[in-house]
């Protein structure tokens, strides 16, 4: 059941972020992401992906430029109100080890002073985990299960925009694959706008509607997966596409040799 209205649009207007002297971490990025889109932001380590992502929920304050969500500047509202509309999943999940799974999931609601009600159970259903793990501590879960809890917590306050920073980075390939599929299904079912940072081009090609490639703080390619697979996007993008393609070709050769 897709939501009637898709998630919000997000626009970067001339975003530059400079942490210190020398080249900026993000250099004059302008682009618009349509509501309901699943965008992957891909690039090698240090290319500025996380910094750009964090300008949306104001974890990073741009040196120049501004970000808007559905046309409204992100600084227009008080921070808690802004963040409430944005789910954020990050690499090391950041579950609180001394809080139970239920307490971790409910945290954004508690911070906002909202009723928890049956939301914990509903979120466990959503991320396809059994409700009876609610009383456990994070240490009693597998890495993939913890990552699902991170997604559940990000979505508990019904945000329409989901930001994910290398959400599957620390997982084994099988778990990574199944969780990627699950996140994509949630994105579609809830009608979210999703922006996912990843260094893995294969993941981007499989999950996203649109792939942005960053290098040295700039967006150097902005293409659909089909276009990238057909050779578009320039050298930096094609160097990243070459990695999964090379793996697929080597696998095909192994198969042919048997
Ligand atoms: P990515 O997510 O693509 O790996 P980041 O956005 O984390 O890249 O970092 C881009 C650049 O900005 C890097 O050179 C990094 O060292 C620098 N950087 C990121 N965050 C900070 C910070 N809080 N203070 C100083 N430098 C930072
Ligand atoms: Mg990063």
From TrEMBL:
Q: What would you give as a GO molecular function for this chain, any one? A: ATP binding
Q: Which GO terms describe its biological process?
A: quaternary ammonium group transport
All copies of domain ABC transporter, residue ranges: 10-241
Which PROSITE patterns does the record match to this protein? ABC_TRANSPORTER_1, ABC_TRANSPORTER_2
Top-rank taxon, per record: Bacteria
Q: Which SMART domains match?
A: AAA
EC no. given is 3.6.3.32
List UniProt keywords, sorted A-Z: ATP-binding, Hydrolase, Nucleotide-binding, Transport
Could you identify this protein by its name?
Carnitine transport ATP-binding protein OpuCA
Species the sequence originates in: Sphingomonas dokdonensis
Q: What is the lineage of its organism?
A: Bacteria, Pseudomonadati, Pseudomonadota, Alphaproteobacteria, Sphingomonadales
Q: Which gene encodes it?
A: opuCA
